[in-house]
Design brief:
102 residues; three-stranded antiparallel sheet
Length: 102
């Protein structure tokens, strides 16, 4: 196999991985904590799309509890998104770790 062929294969794989990355960014992930008191939705680009807090929880006025629940929900939804991305990329690369954020 010559260098030219290897470069073409690498470029092809890079384009495929970029397409996978774009598709992943369109996915949505959700997390709910404390029986629905806090709900978070994020996309595959790790951007929070929405955050809802039940009115009853707000009325309780327990600021620390709300902060803890929001933190827990955000961390949970981001873990889901990262886990899904890692799984998809692992399948796409056959488990080979690639440099450059892929």
């Amino acid at each position: 196999m010559n260098i030219q062929s290897l470069l073409k294969q690498a470029q092809k794989m890079q384009k495929e991985l970029e397409a996978i990355e774009k598709e992943l960014e369109t996915r949505e992930y959700a997390a709910t904590v404390n029986r629905g008191d806090v709900n978070v939705l994020c996309n595959g680009a790790m951007q929070i799309q929405s955050l809802t807090i039940k009115e009853e929880l707000i009325q309780e006025g327990d600021k620390e509890k709300i902060q803890d629940l929001v933190t827990t929900a955000v961390n949970a939804v981001l873990r889901k998104a990262v886990s899904d991305k890692n799984e998809v990329m692992k399948k796409a690369t056959g488990g080979v770790k690639l440099p450059g954020g892929f």
